[in-house]
Amino acid sequence: MPRLEPAIRLLLIANIAVFGLQWWVPSLIDQFALWPLASNFQPWQLVTYAFLHGGFTHIAFNMIGLVSFGNELEQYWGVRRLFVFYFVSVLAAGLTQVAVTASIGEVAPTVGASGGIYGLLLGFAMMFPRRKVVPLIPPIPMPAWLFAVFFAGLELYLGVTGTSAGIAHFAHLGGMIGGWIMIRRWRHLARSRY
């Protein structure tokens, strides 16, 4: 296994530490989960929700995604750009979730790094579109671009149909959109320099 890059290592440690802290201080959810506007919403929750998780499986899959996609992106982009990209994805996911919960009148909080992870997945697919990715289910190798399109389509379908209720499908898509916007902006800035 390649060594963990500094930003990915820090995000991994922070997520695991906060997850451990949740066991001793369950009230963290009250202040730091992402609550709908009509409930307990505070602006800092647009970032802090991404460090809380709903159980061991939730954090395990998110951290696998963080390392799988983020480590190579950090090698390619560097620490600063990786952090900017990740937190823009987290913020975009949070804003999307706030908009969705407001539109349907939902009052449950949102937790998890998934919006940031979906942003990293999109970033990986845009930077390394032909790189082979093997999902856990189904374990069929596919190019990264197809993997990202498949998961975006799946999240859209599950969100629209209400399948797998309790999962923030539109937040996942929001994370991907935030990541896409950042890459488009960086590419535009790079072109305008020449």
Helical content stands at 55-70%
Round the mean pLDDT to the nearest integer and report it: 93
CATH superfamily: Rhomboid-like
User: How many helices in DSSP terms?
Assistant: 8
H and E order? HHHHHHEEHH
Low-confidence stretches: none
Tell me the strand order in the biggest sheet: 1-2
User: At CATH's second level, what is the architecture?
Assistant: Up-down Bundle
Percent strand: under 5%
Structural class, from secondary structure content?
Answer: mainly alpha
Radius of gyration (CA) equals 16 Å
Reading off the top of the CATH hierarchy, the class is best stated as Mainly Alpha
Structural shape: globular
Distance between the termini: 38 Å
The largest sheet is:
2 strands, antiparallel
The number of E-state strands comes to 2
- In total, the number of domains comes to 1
CATH topology: Rhomboid-like fold
Task: Write up what this structure looks like.
Helix 1 runs antiparallel to helix 4. The protein is an all-alpha fold. The protein is 68% helix and 2% strand. The chain is globular. A hairpin with an 8-residue loop joins strand 1 and strand 2 (142-143). The model has no long low-confidence stretch (mean pLDDT 93). It has a single domain (6-192), classed as Rhomboid-like (Rhomboid-like fold), CATH 1.20.1540.10. The chain has helices at 6-24, 28-32, 45-48, 56-77, 79-104, 114-127, 144-161, 169-192; strands spanning 132-133, 142-143. The protein has eight helices and two strands; from the N terminus they run H-H-H-H-H-H-E-E-H-H. A two-stranded antiparallel sheet has the order 1-2. The longest helix has 26 residues, at 79-104.
